[in-house]
Design a protein that fits this description.
By secondary structure, the chain is α+β, with helices and mostly antiparallel strands. The protein has a domain of 143 residues: Peptide methionine sulphoxide reductase MsrA (Peptide Methionine Sulfoxide Reductase, Chain A), CATH 3.30.1060. The protein contains seven helices and ten strands. It starts with 6 loop residues before the first helix and ends in a 9-residue tail after the last helix.
């Protein structure tokens, strides 16, 4: 039997390629960071931020309360202490914390502590949930900047992050859903129901009133 030749260079090359692959995968993983914010209806926050360059995904859910694995009906009843919130996954090499928090403040009415627009109650109030000192510092700086520019008191709290529960599947990407749902306008696609809800709730009208040309998502 003839002995195999040049085995070591081949194995060495394979080992180098494997090392490069693992380093690339690790670097890619490190680029993905997250923030959690509450800005009223999570359909709207999800829609806004999934259009931002550098944001990989926005996930609707619930956080800040005391009930484990809450349902939508439980949360909006106001008895769980949870907020409708959104977990935003982003590439930290493309967009940073200050920019994300600036966009957030200018996409909501941070002067309203009783809910957002037509949605009333604590579950629809605004909040930022932070999980480390860097997030807390960036959120506080963005809040101070927004208050200075707006010239009004901002009541959005900056809270310690707690367990985030993903909302039911039908809430995810609702703004672009194709399933037909029954509304007061009759049966329409989810995407159309979302547009009519957002307009009817007065979200963009109020944000434009507050922020004018600084409002980043009025075209949605």
């Amino acid at each position: 039997m003839r002995p195999l030749r040049n085995t070591h260079p081949i194995l060495l090359s394979l080992a180098i390629l494997a090392g490069i692959f693992l380093q690339s995968a690790a670097a890619k993983a490190q680029q993905t960071s997250e923030i959690i914010v509450a800005g009223g209806c999570f359909w709207c926050v999800e829609s806004d931020f999934e259009g931002v360059r550098g944001v990989k995904e926005a996930i609707s859910g619930y956080t800040g309360g005391t009930t484990s694995n809450p349902t939508y009906k439980q949360v909006v009843s106001g008895r769980t202490g949870h907020y409708e919130a959104v977990r935003i996954l982003y590439n930290s090499h493309q967009i940073d914390l200050p920019r994300l928090y600036d966009l957030f403040f200018r996409s909501v009415d941070p002067t309203d502590g009783g809910g957002q627009f037509c949605d009333r109650g604590q579950s629809y109030a605004t909040a930022i949930f932070v999980s480390n000192p860097a997030q807390k510092a960036a959120a506080e700086a963005a809040k101070a900047k927004a208050q200075s520019e707006l010239g009004q008191r901002i009541v959005t709290p900056i809270l310690e992050a707690s367990t985030f529960y993903e909302a039911e599947d039908y809430h995810q990407d609702y703004y672009k859903g194709t399933k037909r749902v029954l509304t007061r306008f009759g049966p329409v696609k989810q995407s159309e129901a979302y547009k009519r809800y957002r307009e009817g709730c007065g979200r963009d009208a109020r944000i434009e009133q507050l922020w004018g040309s600084d409002a980043p998502f009025l075209s949605h």
